[in-house]
Amino acid sequence: MRAWFSSGLRLLALDGSFIVPNDRYNQEREQSLAAKVLTLREEEVLNAAAALFGARGFAATSIRDIGERVGLLGGSLYHYIKSKDALFIRIHDRALQAAEDRICAAIAGVQDPSQALATACRVLLEIQLDPASLTMPLMNDFRAVPESVRVQLVERRDAFEQVFADLVEAAPMPAGVDRVVYRILLLTTLNTASTWYRPGRLSLEEVAKQILRVYSIEG
Amino acid sequence: MRAWFSSGLRLLALDGSFIVPNDRYNQEREQSLAAKVLTLREEEVLNAAAALFGARGFAATSIRDIGERVGLLGGSLYHYIKSKDALFIRIHDRALQAAEDRICAAIAGVQDPSQALATACRVLLEIQLDPASLTMPLMNDFRAVPESVRVQLVERRDAFEQVFADLVEAAPMPAGVDRVVYRILLLTTLNTASTWYRPGRLSLEEVAKQILRVYSIEG
DNA sequence: CCTACCGATCGGTAGG
DNA sequence: CCTACCGATCGGTAGG
Predict the structure, then answer these.
(1) φ, ψ for residue A101 (rounded to 5)?
(2) Helix axes A179-191, B179-191, angle to 10 degrees
(3) Which pLDDT tens digit goes with each residue over A99-108?
């Protein structure tokens, strides 16, 4: 049995990765275990950064802002991150992987193509509107991001969207609708819902129902 | 007859304001004539700033970037602008006013509610996708903008969207669709089209037709 | 994890 | 319209 496993305390983070207490063994193995095992402190840094990137965007979020959220000075953050660019890419990757996992799990047993698409939409909307899973720094608007970073974000996002491309391909469409355009509009709608939705008049379920209705999905 | 009128050369800018050659009379009267009469140089500055804000967002666009585009050093720009914040608000206001004017002119003679909504959508899409009228710094994503600026942008944008609110109110909807949600989804779709559309497979007219079809608008 | 700092860049100003 | 500069802040590093 591995040391980090026998150490007892182990938590499952929102995105499916393990969180373990910060001990020497873990610090030494961090690199070789890739991104799978994180210390509590690392998890804190990622969550704080995700929240700020999501709220203000890449350019308007400073390393010192992120540090302040977790009680560190800016420079000290570099013990946990390689660079601001790499941090953003990492958060984006983890958020999309977590979303993809949740969506694939939710549609695994669904046979009807319309029902599968409806379910995928509902789960993505849940993720985008969940204030706790601020883990989603809005997959759009890469304008303020350096070019070299943007190409990596776009590549990852395209992979994620393939899930929806497949679902849209299989689902029935209104007459004369281009499936590529439809998929883009649908995903934009789901991904930007957090910019306007505020709990109150409509519940999350009602918003989901409205979106499915506008997009002619029998859910 | 007014001096600026008799000076002969007068151009109509994209957003409907007049452009006149830079002469002493004009410079002296600029303030009292409000924002209606602009020197060529001012127009240049606004267009360059609009293009950069639109391409990179507020936080990632520097005053020096804008200056470079018009052949000035950063500091020299302050002869034409009051502040970066004020510049952004001004561009946003002018772009929305120009869009509103074009849309209202286009739907003026249209009686059928569905036809009117379809026309408004087509014109807004044209504006958002016209590479020349980069005058539109994407009316969404105010995340990187200072709070004091954002409230002014939102206020102006809400006024603009009232045109669409009225059109959606009058138009027939699919059964069970909430008109407020519908309007938000429709406007988001039109306003973000420039983030994904590239001329090639589909023409602007085809994209418009697709959007109208997805949103069940008989155009 | 902090102190202390680097060079670069930011929005903006003074003075001509 | 430029030179020359202000104080603030940026991402990032060294050394402990």
Answers:
(1) -60, -45
(2) 110
(3) 999 999 999 9
The three-point CA angle B34-B102-B152 to 5° equals 50
Listed range (B5-19, B78-92, B127-141) with the worst mean pLDDT:
B5-19
Which residues of chain B make contact with A58, given a CB cutoff of 8 A?
A: 60
Q: Tell me, what's the pLDDT at A36? A: 56
Domain B86-214 = CATH 3.40.30.10: no
Beta-carbon contacts below 8 Å between A and B:
93
Q: What residues does each domain of chain A span?
A: 3-81, 87-214
DSSP A77-111: GGGT-S-HHHHHHHHHHHHHHHHHHHHHHHHTT--
DSSP code for A11 = E
Q: How confident is the model at residue A139 (pLDDT cuts 50, 70, 90)?
A: low
**CA dihedral sign, ordered A123, A129, A131, A137:** positive
pTM of the model: 0.83
Nearest nt to the CA of A75 via C1' is: D12
CATH pick for A87-214 out of 3.30.465.10, 3.30.930.10, 3.90.105.10, 1.10.357.10:
1.10.357.10
Reported as a single tens digit per residue, the pLDDT across B36-48 is 577 888 899 999 9
Nearest CA in chain B to A174: B214
Chain A residues with beta carbon closer than 8 angstroms to that of B213: 174, 176-177
- Reduced to 3 states, what is the DSSP secondary structure of residue A37? strand
Q: Quick one: average pLDDT of B160-164? A: 97
| CATH superfamily, with its number, for domain B3-81 | Homeodomain-like (1.10.10.60)
Buried b (16+ CB within 10 A) or exposed e, A67-94: beebebeeeebeebbeebeebbbbbbbb
- Cβ of B74 near strand C (under 7 Å)? The reply is yes
Of B57, B182, B189, the CB nearest to A59: B57
Task: Decide if A105 contacts A124 (C-beta within 8 A).
Answer: no
Quick check: A146 CB within 7 A of strand C?
no
In what helix (H) or strand (E) does residue B37 lie, and over which residues does it extend?
strand B37-39
Q: What is the DSSP letter of B74?
A: G
What pLDDT is recorded for position A20?
37
The reply to whether A16 Cβ lies less than 7 angstroms from strand D is no
Q: Measured in whole angstroms, how far is the alpha carbon of residue A25 from the centre of its chain?
A: 29
Predicted local distance difference test score (pLDDT) of residue B135: 62
